[in-house]
Amino acid sequence: NLSWVKNIKFVKLGKYIMECWYFSPFPKEYYPNGFAECLYFCEFSFRFFATKEELVRYQKKPNLPRHPPGNEIYRDSEVSMFELDGAVEKVYCQNLCYFAKLFLDHKTLYWDVDPFLFYVLCTRDERGFHPVGYFSKEKYSDMGYNLACILTFPCVQRVGYGRFLMAFSYELSKKEEKAGSPEKPLSDLGAVGYKSYWAHTILKLLRDYPGQIISIMDITRITSILPDDVQATLQMLQLLHYTGGADADND
Predict the structure, then answer these.
(1) Fold exhibited by the domain 186-236
(2) pLDDT tens column, 189-210
(3) How far is residue 68's CA from residue 85's CA, in Å, rounded to a whole number?
(4) Which of 23, 102, 153, 218 has the fewest CB atoms within 10 Å, counting from its CB?
């Protein structure tokens, strides 16, 4: 089973070296003997190389952009978000999928990136924009999915980027005036992350809601969280039997 045979031991991205977790179907020339010690990624273009020397030579090119392609659609004091069309920025998005598969056991999207939009989250400094995670979503989802795949890069996990990516996917749903949900089934890690995000979002809403009674559809209308996900979260929190507001401290 190829999904269990790790073919790349480490990847280097910017200043980080990360140990890989799973197989990813890179072109065979990058691991000709069935295994490679390290692949070297350019953090700006996501092109990858078999040797550090090749990467250094590539990054010495004049006028190499120091940010992802696509449009910067969000910026605050710390991070920026870039939106990429998989049909337009095909190489970047395919390479991002190769990279993501090293850390996602269930991921199957490698080549067919055309139907997807990619949202790449970056930190910024004087050297440029440094990717820390991303999510993808179908341009047109019959199932109402607002997210297909999500990854916070292992070198920067547990600092809140995953929750930021989830929240951003729902902000896009609000902008589209739709309820959304991540593609099912969720991975084990994904399920933990989303249950936490839904609980946090709904409890905050219940705490701040001015009325005495709120329905599942009211919560969906305000948060864009799908009614099924709202109901499951309220059941998990044992709040469905409440008819008034709920104190966010009683979780």
Answers:
(1) Arc Repressor Mutant, subunit A (1.10.10)
(2) 889 999 999 999 999 999 999 9
(3) 12
(4) 218
